[in-house]
Amino acid sequence: MSGDATLDDTTAGLHEVALDEAPPIRSRATPRADSPTPLDGHVGDADGRAGGIGIDADATEAGQAAEGADADASIRADATRTDEGMNSDGGFEAVSLGDEQAEDHSPTIQENGDDPHRSSTPPSPASPAHTPPSTPPPHSPSVVSTAPTTTIDPSSSHNVSTPPETAETDAKGAGEAEAKVVTPAATPQKKPVSTRKQTVMQKVVSMTRQRTLPPKSKEEEEKHLEQLAEMLAASREAEKRRRSEAEARSALRATALATAFPVWEKSILPNWRVVLHDDAQGRRLRDLWWDGTMPVRWRGRLWAMCIGNGLAVGKNELSKASERVRALREAGKFEEVERAAKEDVERVLPALKLFQEGRVMHEDLMEVLLAWSVHEKVTPRYVPGLAFPAALLILNMSPSEAFVCLVNLVQKSFLRSFYSGDPDEVEAYYRVFDTLLADYMPRVYANFSAQVVRPSLYLFPWLSTLYTAFLPLDLATRIFDVFLLEGDSFVFRVAIVILQILEPRLFNPNLDELSAVFEGTDKGAVGVVRREKGLLTADGGSIEERDGGIRVEVEDVYSEMGATEDRVFKLLRQLDWKEETFARLVERELPEVGV
């Protein structure tokens, strides 16, 4: 009896120690009647200690599928699993003892990765003692958190963080249990990422300085990039403004042509010499002629009337000259002349693609040129440049009419001296022009004299082709219109104006570069034209040879250098030209020519 009493006392003492040291836990099989039944969720107890309740994966799925069913059946099923003392993953589960109601429960993470309905719900704040907590909302499936799990040891004040895959609950004794609390980690805030990230090369290499020079500072680089953006924007605005101005000029020109057409038809075409009258009507019609409003349909007829036929060339003269050409060709005495003519024709208005070999007007132009080379000449000869005025005539009249006009035009104008092959007459015209240049542009004349820049470098190519080889076709045609009206002096006046336009480029001490300006091959102007036509490659080269026809023409370069139709004729009107001075100079240098 005494042994049994001692054993009972010892057991009672152990029981009291267990009750004092271990937290009160309770099985969900016997909840308090006045407390709501937790549905697979967890709340903390009143004194802040966490109690762990295992959530079986199968039970969770059953709870999701049978939501709203009788809660007692779910509690009894959970209690049966709890009495077995094991979790679904094989670990011990803490169960409740005594009559105290656990008022807070914390969730545990299911370790089964195959369960899509597992969830991690953060613990709700601890409720005051004896205060029933509100019923949590039904459990909803969510993706398991990958944040570390914090395990709280009741006997220690330190928290131990372990990955969720390795967090386990260890049983230290029959009356001792560890609570496992899951604290979901907040999703880290992502910084906005720019969609235009700088490459490594852009971070190191300056975008506004050559790579062979020392790099700029970051502040200087940013400043220059901003300035570059401003310049590009200004360039786009300037280009837009130029296009608008060009469209406005085109509209004004179309209106002027439509307005002038009936005047040409009624007042000038019946008697073109009325333009030469020194009265109000004559001056008004003369201004109309200068304005470039001559109708295209009447241009050939007006040109023929202005040139006239003082040599009385018959209409069948072209066919007679062509017969002689065939005879000389058969005799083998015409190869050199024919070769020179073909070379000249290849240079004529290449942008039009009308006169080169194989084109539609090639045969007509060659027939007129070869006929001129044998007309009233003992020995056939051809002079370079003749193909250009001949091409202008053929564009506006038939080949037979063009031949008559060409023969008379060459004979009655300065072209006779330029095509005659007599160097003395050509030099006489050079002296005339040098005198005019000294009067109108003394600085340029002094510079040309110091560098020995002769008029043969620029004046002969301009005048022998009547500027058709250098200026745009519309401008060259308008110059030809006024030349037929005003005479030889007008082409020398045009030469002075073009030199005024090119004046900033005429003081280059390098004679080769100066020649490139006159020839229309100036590198700077050519580069601008290539850029505007989209012919530049990434390495600064040109794609003219591969672009299927788009190329930089001499007329494009002259236009880029400022020789546009509007500017040329504006300067021509502003030029204080004295016709008497030109006539006196020609009479002095070429007394047998006269004007």
From TrEMBL:
Residues 293-487 form the Rab-GAP TBC domain. GO terms for molecular function: GTPase activator activity; small GTPase binding. SUPFAM superfamilies: Ypt/Rab-GAP domain of gyp1p. Residues 152-164 have a biased composition (Polar residues). Residues 73-84, 169-179 have a biased composition (Basic and acidic residues). Residues 218-249 form a coiled coil. Keywords: Coiled coil. Residues 55-72, 141-151 have a biased composition (Low complexity). Residues 1-200 are annotated as: Disordered. Residues 122-140 have a biased composition (Pro residues). This is TBC1 domain family member 14. It comes from Rhodotorula toruloides (Yeast).
